[in-house]
Design brief:
Number of strands: 14
Distance between the termini: 29 Å
Radius of gyration: 20 Å
Strand order of the largest sheet: 2-1-13-12-11
Number of domains: 1
Order of helices and strands: EEHEEHHHEEEEEEHHEEEEH
Number of helices: 7
Strand content: 15-25%
Structural class: alpha+beta
CATH topology: Beta-lactamase
Amino acid sequence: MANPEAYELQVIFSRIHRLKDSIGFTDYSYRLSDSSYFYPASTVKFPIAVLTLEKLNKLDTLDRHSRFFVEGDTLVTTFAQDISRVFAVSDNEANNRLMEFLGQDAINNELAAKGVGPVRIAHQLGEHSYNPTTSPLLIYLNDSTTTPSKPIVNTAPQPLNLKNIRKGRGYYEEDSLYMGPFDFSLKNYYPLSTQHQVLKRVIFPEAYPKEQQFHISKEQRNFLLNAMQTLPREAGYDEAVYYDSYCKFFLFGDRHDRAPAHIHIYNKAGWAYGTLTDCAYIYDTDNGVEFLLSTTILVNPNGIFNDDDYAYEETGIPFLAELSRELYEKEKERLK
């Protein structure tokens, strides 16, 4: 906190007011700026998962349990399984399959139509594929018959012109070190204010007019909320590898034991290029404490990108955990 500029720290905290049948918010922010770029990493998977459900809701022939595989791949999955993987362990390949289903242009356009922005989803995750044309999905009509979806041609991304779009003093590319700032101008852009907008619309859709809501059914929303709060072990992953806080940095992110049963965190976190981001609705069923919190922090002390030498465990996650605990305690005290 003594040098927030070096950590590119941004915070949004929303106090929740419940008045009979209405929901209200008091929003507080710290160093929030849409024009100051940070790499959003896996947080982009949240709107992709929501928009997948919305698109399925518009199709008579598909639902989230429909089986499919991507042309050129052999893994057969369902939309429900991939959405669950996205939240439980932040699976990149699951996200990329959902992007093949949606296409980048549709993601950006659908968010803009709901008044959600600014945002620019430009590439898949992992290998950062910028291929503007999606691969067809082979969708099962029954146990043995498949039908292909049509490829979607998307707009090629243009360079972003934002503050901090070039970062650091050097970067690795194919095992070679290059001195000079690392350029993020073609990468995904999903600022903290936009992440908070998406979270609010999912957790509290009734706070928004119909045209600004995600058009998913009550049953789809319940599935989504369950996926958002499910811990890896509850989704069948090895607890020794995927501990409870694996994708949940707030409150208990700096612990590897089991999370308290009365604390429910509905979130999507992301970490890459030294940047940690979490966007969450936190609800304590025992004490009635609830709030929304979105935070991003850069922890790359040596200023070199792509060297996998980031201070996630030493600095970033402990900070996010402690910040959220302080806010939790203040809300708990306020409610007494």
